[in-house]
Amino acid sequence: MHRIAVLAVPPVTNFDLSIPEVVFPAVMIDDRPGYEVVVCTADPGIVPGYSGTAVVIEHGLDAIAAADTVIVTGTGAREFGDPRVLEALGTAAAQGKRIASICTGAFVLAQAGLLDGRPATTYWLFSQEMRERFPAVDLQPDVLFVDDGQILTSAGLAAGIDLCLHMIRADYGAVAANAVARLAVVAPIRPGGQAQFIETPLPPETGTSLAATRDWALQRLDQRLALRDLAAHAHVSTRTLTRRFREETGASPLQWLLHQRIDRARELLEATGLPIEEVARRAGLGTAESLRLHLARRNGLSPSAYRTSFSRR
To answer: For residues 172 and 152, what is the distance between their CA atoms, to the nearest angstrom?
Structure first.
């Protein structure tokens, strides 16, 4: 079982704090929990919240020593970090533990020196503050999350869910991550490079949303789909399709389509014994070589290595 320590730095952001508590315990592998989640803080007891509410946290920083992953959730303490917390994070990083942050938790990682020279992100509203106070951080202000190997950071609020699903996908595969996404009723796939700020985050009530076209495409991933095919289904020009696609998803139509194809291939590799060529065909990636190329870029693994690591058959 993978052990996660969720580090609450007061004043805590309650929504961010609840994300790992809800998402990770939903992972079941062979009818057993995939994660053990412990919430901890420097001074156990009543911990003040950023919005005026408070939470009760029973565990102290010693929980970090037993963890494989440490997640620092959103906090109002962007300027003066608790030295005990910064020391604990530094020790955890030195021991090779995976360290992640949600929203303004990135400021705590930056204060601990863990983001120096690394690409990272945070909630876009505080990007300028991050850039001014921590110039050594390679800030990526427009993305949902950044995975830099041992250190991962996410933007605000719902982007924390995306980061948690990304970590589940890395630990247990796409099937497990998508199962949790369905339980949480959230989109299973939002790549980290997707834009934080989407002009139209909810489909308009005018009936002009491209949701139906995206669903149509998902049912035909094994077929050749060009930009003109998507535009024809949506009854718009390719230029209008591209503009509205970016407004609704933060990605271009073909970027979005490629990501769906790669994720379909990962699910087929995990859940079936199909030959690699057939997996590539059903995912719409054409050839086994094309699948190898895209999977290596996205996951750093060959199809056979991915199947060996994540197969649930």
So the answer is: 17
- Counts of helices then strands in the chain (DSSP H, E): 13, 12
- Cα dihedral 180/183/188/192 (nearest 10): -60
Cβ atoms of 260 and 218 closer than 8 Å? yes
**Beta strands 151-154; 98-101: pairing state:** parallel
Q: How far apart are CA 294 and CA 188, in angstroms?
A: 19
Measure the CA–CA gap between 259 and 261, rounded to whole angstroms: 5
Half-sphere exposure of 69 (CA within 13 A, CB side): 26
Residue in 248, 125, 239, 243 with CA at minimum distance from that of residue 198: 248
pLDDT tens for the 313 residues of the chain, in order: 899 999 999 999 999 999 999 999 999 988 899 999 999 999 999 999 987 889 999 999 999 999 999 999 999 888 888 999 999 999 999 999 999 999 999 999 999 999 999 999 999 899 999 999 999 999 998 888 999 999 999 998 788 999 999 999 999 988 888 888 888 766 655 655 555 544 444 444 445 578 899 999 999 999 999 999 999 999 999 999 999 998 888 789 999 999 899 989 988 998 899 999 999 999 999 999 999 999 888 877 899 988 888 775 4
Which tokens hold the place of 233? 């289904």
Domains of the chain: 2-184 (3.40.50.880), 202-313 (1.10.10.60)
In eight-state DSSP terms, residue 6 is E
CA distance 145 to 262: 19
Residues 6+ apart with CB under 8 A from 103: 13, 16, 73, 74, 122, 123, 154, 155, 156, 157, 159, 160
Distance separating alpha carbons of residues 169 and 166, to the nearest angstrom: 5
Residues 6+ apart with CB under 8 A from 99: 69, 70, 71, 72, 89, 92, 93, 109, 114, 150, 151, 152
- Sole residue written with tokens 């209008």: 240
